[in-house]
Amino acid sequence: MEDRSPAGVIIEMANCTDPAQEAAFNDWYEKTYIPKMVGTGALYSGIRFKNCAPNRPEYPRRVPEAMFTTIYETDWPDQRKAYETMKRRWDEWKRAGQLHPALQVTFQTMFWRRPEPGQGHVSEKPINGISLVMIRGDKDFTRWAEHTHIRYIARGMPKGFTMITRYENALSQTEGPLWLHLYELDSEDPDTDVRHMVDPVRKMLGDNTPAFKEWAQHPSLEIWYVNTFKRVSPVGHIRPMQKSPY
C-alpha cells in the first residue's frame, strides 16, 4: 500500500457492537489494538478505514458487512506462518479478556501479493480510501482481471485512484474469496470517485459496446464483497518493519 509492497495483507473487518462505547472503542482500536497486532512481530503496519456505504445494494455479498476494515501488512515470505503467529496471540488475548467487549470481527484472513506488478501510479499523498473487492473466478479469470479489467481502469486514470494490486488467499484455495483486488485512493471523497471509476473506461471503449461488456464482466466472476472505505487511522502510523524469523 502507498509506496510499500507488502508480501501479504490481512484484511480484518469489524464492528463496534455498542454505539454508546464507540468513542472509547475507536480510541482503544487505534492506540491499543493495532499496536498489539503489530507487536506480534508478524505485521509491520495497520491502517483502519470506515465503510462509506454499509449494505449497499449494487453488489451481492457473501462476506458479512462491517463498519470498519483494517489492512495489516507483512513482509514475511511465509504469509500463512505470519497469520498463524498473529492468530495465536489474538486467541490468547480473547481468552484473557484483553479484547474490547464491543469488538465484533466479521472477517479476518491473509492474502499474499501476486507476482504480477500492481497497476496505476504512486501518489505523493497518503492513502485516504480503498475499494475492497473480494471475488472468485475460474482459471481464465486472472487473464481477464490483469489484461482487461484492471488494465483499462489504470489506463483511464480515474480521479483519486493510485495503485491497484491483486492478492490471493493465503489460507485456502477452496473456501471464501480467492482473490482480493485492492484499489487505493488519495482523494477526499473516495466513495464518489469509485462510483465514477467507470466513466473514463466507458469513454475509451464506448458505451454498451462489445469491448465495454467484456471489460465489465467475466462469465466466471463470483462476487464475495465489494465496498469503499475512507481512512480513519492517523497518517504516519506505520510501525518499523519486523524481521521475519522464517
Can you describe this structure in just a few lines?
The chain is 29% helix and 28% strand. It has 246 residues and is α+β, with helices and mostly antiparallel strands. An eight-stranded antiparallel β-barrel has the order 1-3-2-9-6-8-7-4.
Task: Describe the fold and architecture.
The chain is of the alpha+beta class and about 250 residues long. The chain has a single domain (about 10-230), classed as Alpha-Beta Plaits, CATH 3.30.70.100. About 30% of the residues lie in helices and about 30% in strands. It has six helices and nine strands. The chain has helices spanning about 20-40, 80-95, 140-155, 190-195, 200-205, 210-215, and strands at about 10-15, 45-50, 70-75, 105-115, 120, 130-135, 160-170, 180-185, 220-230. The protein has an eight-stranded antiparallel β-barrel with strand order 1-3-2-9-6-8-7-4. Helix 3 crosses helix 5. The longest helix has 17 residues, at about 20-40. It starts with 7 loop residues before the first strand and ends in a 15-residue tail after the last strand. The relative contact order is 0.23.
